[in-house]
Every structure is written in structure tokens, then in C-alpha cells.
Amino acid sequence: MNDIVNVIGAGLAGCEAAWAVAEAGIRVRLYEMKPEKYSPAHKYSGFAELVCSNSLKAARLESAAGLLKYEMELLGSLTVPCAKENSVEAGGALAVDREKFSDAVTAKIKSHPLIEVIGGEVTELPEGMTIIATGPLTQGAMADIIRGLCGEGLSFYDAAAPIVTADTINMERAFYASRYDRGDADYVNCPMNKEEYLAFHEALINAEKVQLKDFETHPFSVYEGCMPIEELASRGVDTMRFGPMKPVGIDDPRTGRRPYAVVQLRKENREGTLFNLVGFQTNLKFGEQKRVFSMIPGLENAEFMRYGVMHRNTFINSPELLNSDFSMRSRPEIFFAGQITGVEGYMESAASGLIAGIAASRRLKGLEPVKLPPDTMTGALSHYVSDPFNSGNFQPMGANMGILPDIGVRIKDKKERYGAYAQRAVNSLRGELERIGGKCNS
């Protein structure tokens, strides 16, 4: 075939995209600026470099991370088999020797007869179908290109609040209400008395924080509106009560009085299975977030599906810009993949590249698209980043069971419940693959 797909960036997402397209029998031009130029976080010359942890999270099927990797293998993943072949002991997680993993992916890509690797920084958008997978530290000319495509829908930092599952909020302590009873009672409110607030404040200002890298410090000196909650707390004991924890306009229906302070939770998804802590973007370590935020009345036993983060991260407002196959609504010949789309995590980034590559190749071959079922992890992530409902306060999201639609049966045991979600997802994806003929790239 004479068709060519351009892929910009040879990280996890770009390699998955290039591999999916090439395996479909379509030529690929894979652009990678390393080793001529490195981002502040990258050091190794190989493709699919893991810049932080060497863990790809849980391996067991009845986990969100394990389910995602299983689905990726069904879809023809490159990185998951390479990870398994270069794994190191890590208990129940799939962890890898990062250099051997990178070398394995690089060798596969470079040896594929339909993939041409082009070195150097991309300064102009190539002609034809293109998958942009330039990573969360995109800068320079490529950032300008993306800004030209996306307009104002481009962020250069990731300031996200923690997210909990709705069914683990203790509604005997919390209550639904909107401030001054305006509109529908869409917010979950967790009231605090003075003693509870002071204890929470003390724990918050003394909690251990993540040490930022040099290239991550700039955004926090600029974006006052995205100040970490612990930084706000350090400015004075009552500062939070005049900010995100202000109780004005809210009465506790159990007492009929205004609480001393209140934490509000807002729906994170259309289904209402996830809620985020409003104004609680944070740079605390994950364990500290669990310890301190569990002090909030109503969140004593809350299950955190994502912890808050504040770090340098380029991502687009995907719900306004992308279809569920990661193509642009305004420019369907252009796809995005990786963390730049708002998926959070190594394998989530790889999965988005895999989905984009499958979609691009099937479109070029005139085949009907793969319809990832919404009850699969790949389908749920695709839905999350493309659902216009999420565009108003879009924040990156990793794989978690909370983004899957409710299974409709009450299963108290967490392991059994997650196992049921996983089995449903596997059955759904296998059914879709059977519908299109068994393989997604042919």
C-alpha cells in the first residue's frame, strides 16, 4: 500500500501507534528527536523510556492496571509482551528492567520493515495522517504546532485534586447540597466542627510533600489559582475557611446550622460514580494524602481512585477536541496519543497510542472502526477523554475501576467485585473482536 502514517514521538504511545499501523501493513514514518535532543526528564537514547518508576502497576486481572494490560494484549500490544519478557521481581506488580525494556521495544520498532525512523526535532507538521505522541514535556516548536491545532485547549501543568468513589463516601456524615440552595444539590458536602478543622489543618501543614524536579517548579510560582491545598493552609489557620473550605451558604441538615468548615466534592464523571475534592490540588505524597484526607468527615473509609498531583505536564482539553478514537473532531486526519491526551500513567499512555494506531490503520484500509465497549478499561478511558461532559474541569485520569459503568449487582467483597468487572470487560472486548473478524489490524 502507498499510504503512510506519520507518528511523532517514540515514547510508549508513539511506539504502540507505529507498531499497530505497521502490523496492519501500512508504512510508518516515526519521528523521534532523541538522541539529538532530550527533554529535561529523558536520559536514555532508546525508545519507550520509563522516566520515573520502573513499575507498570498491578499484574492481576482483577485490578484496573492488570485489566488494562490484558485488554492491550488482546488488541495486539507491543509494549506489554516486551515488559513481560524483561520483567523483574516486584511482588504482584509488573516491573521491568527499564533499559532492557527500552532496548527490546527499540529493536522491535527498528527491525520492522514498514517503519522508518526519522531523527531530529519536528518543527513542522508532516502532511497526511499524523499521530502526535510527543509526551507530557512537549515544548518549543512542537508545542507551538499543538497550540495552533488546539487553540487555548492546552495546559502546561497538571494540578489535579484527589478522586474517590461515590459508594465509599459515608453519607451518614456527609450530605448533598448546593451553596445557598442554588440549582440542583449536586455537591457532596463534608462538614467539620472547629475541633475537626484544627486537627485537619495541623495534619495538613505537617504532612510530607513530593520533592519537585527543577523543571517542575515554574508553574507553581505563576498559577496562583492552582495553589496546593497544603500551601494555602500554611498561610494561616483560617485561610482554607475563606477558600475551598468556606461554609458560607451551606447548612448541615442534621443540625440546621452552618458548619465551621466544609469540604465539597463534585461529580467527576457523568455517571456519578466518581467525585473529586474541590480545590484540593496537592503535592503531598500519596500515602500522606490517604492519611490526612481520610480525616475529613465522610471520607474515613473512602476509596481513592486517583491521588492529587501537581507537576509539569502538557495536556490538551481532549473532551473538547477529540473523538473516542483519539482523532481530532476538527481535523480527523490528526490523532493525539499518550499523556498529552489526558491519560495518566505508562500503560494508559501506551493504550491510547495503540487505540489511535488501530483507528488510523483501519480508516486507511476502509474498514469499520473498532468500537471499544464502554465496560472495558480501554473503552472507558477513551470515553473519559472524549466526553464533552468532562471538558469544563478536565484533568488527567489513569485506569481505575471507578470509570467503568456499574455492574448492577451489589458485591461486597472488593476482590470479587473487581473480578466481576474484569470478566465482564474481557467478555465484551472478545465479543467486539469476534464481530470485526478476530483481529483489529486486518
From TrEMBL:
Pfam families in UniProt: GIDA
Classification via InterPro entries: FAD/NAD-bd_sf, MnmG-rel, MnmG-rel_CS, MnmG_N, TrmFO
Sites where the protein binds FAD: G9, A10, G11, L12, A13, G14
GO CC terms, sorted: cytosol
Localization: Cytoplasm
GO biological process: tRNA methylation; tRNA wobble uridine modification
UniProt domain MnmG N-terminal: residue ranges: 5-367
EC assignment: 2.1.1.74
Swiss-Prot/TrEMBL cofactor(s): FAD
Single GO molecular function: flavin adenine dinucleotide binding
Protein family (similarity comment): Belongs to the MnmG family. TrmFO subfamily.
HAMAP family linked to this entry: TrmFO
PANTHER family associated with the record: GLUCOSE INHIBITED DIVISION PROTEIN A, METHYLENETETRAHYDROFOLATE--TRNA-(URACIL-5-)-METHYLTRANSFERASE TRMFO
Protein name: Methylenetetrahydrofolate--tRNA-(uracil-5-)-methyltransferase TrmFO
Lineage start: Bacteria, Bacillati, Bacillota, Clostridia, Eubacteriales
